[in-house]
Design goal:
The complex is a heterodimer of chains A (107) and B (83).
Chain A (H helix, E strand, L loop, with lengths): L1 H25 L3 H26 L3 H33 L11 H4 L1
Chain B lengths: L2 H11 L1 H10 L2 H25 L3 H26 L3
The chains are: A mainly alpha (107), B mainly alpha (83).
């Protein structure tokens, strides 16, 4: 029973990450593609939980869960920072002000 | 070949599209592909540690999570200012 649960969690995690890679390839622009990074982070968390189920609360299981948890927790921070940088690079500022001068107009 | 090792091989194969995006797409798309590839590498290291029963791989995965997040944040901040 333990192996079945671990394999189901593992399959779900790997499938999520493959869907994220597929999304990276088929999405149209950068902001669409950014969604895939967070999705892959949840896949890593599922794999960490699968290792925890397989190994119980051993040193390996604990660290796998921690790595998956950190990836899922810090992934949205990374996505937000990247999207903010992209917006500043393309629009000159991250704020949604209609008449804010863009980088092209300022230079 | 165990299921864990097979999963690691599948995720390593998933790097190939990320590499293609890195080479062919714009620089911000390449950054997104690097971030996704880092997440995949974390999963691969976790799976290898269980497949080979080697403790150092899971320490490597744990360290790589933090290093990759900090590195990607630094990349994003630098690309913001076109450095």
């Amino acid at each position: 029973m333990k192996d079945v649960v671990a394999y189901v969690l593992l399959a779900a995690g790997v499938l999520l990450q493959l869907i994220a890679v597929l999304g990276l390839c088929v999405m149209r622009d950068t902001l669409d593609r950014l969604h895939c990074v967070s999705l892959a982070g949840w896949g890593t968390l599922l794999i960490g939980v699968a290792i925890l189920v397989e190994q119980y609360f051993s040193l390996l299981g604990d660290k796998a869960l921690l790595a998956g948890f950190l990836t899922a927790l810090l992934g949205p921070v990374l996505v937000h920072t990247t999207a903010r940088s992209f917006r500043i690079r393309t629009r000159g500022d991250w704020r949604a002000v209609e008449d804010y001068p863009t980088r092209e107009r300022r230079s | 070949m165990s299921v864990w090792l097979l999963s690691a091989v599948v995720l390593v194969a998933a790097w190939i599209p990320c590499l293609g995006v890195c080479i062919l797409a714009t620089e911000f798309d390449a950054l997104v592909a690097v971030e996704l590839g880092s997440t995949l590498l974390t999963s691969v290291l976790m799976l290898l540690s269980l497949a080979f029963r080697r403790q150092p791989f899971i320490d490597l995965a744990l360290a790589f999570v933090l290093v990759s997040i900090v590195g990607s944040l630094a990349f994003a901040r630098m690309m913001e200012e076109d450095i």
